[in-house]
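note to self — DONT lose this again. spent like an hour looking for the file last time. sequence + predicted structure for the chain T wanted, 124 res
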Amino acid sequence: MVADGGIGAPQLMRSLTRDPGIPDPGAVRPWTIFLETLTHDFDTLNWFNSGACPVEVFAAADALAYLDFKQSGLLDTAMVTIRYDNGAIADAEASFSAAYGYDVRGEVLASSSPSPKRCVVVLR
């Protein structure tokens, strides 16, 4: 429905991944939140907006939950905003500190959408 244009041209998109915690924060390599977590959100957003190319990216990340591991390069919270060449805007967020459990979601608001099309999965 999204990839075949059934809801029109994507305008706003969101993908988020929240994990319930890190058992051993010291074992997490620097940039993991981008290289092993958000990379899947980027794939999802690009699939939602098939044929469009990212032209602008802004990323912010920090160690907000595991402060003692910040100096070792751990980033546990991140937000990325992406603008595409067709004008669509997307955001991807990730957190390694969702105490309520796993939370993975995707959302698209498109030109013909009566309401955002959502795929929401919450694993507890």
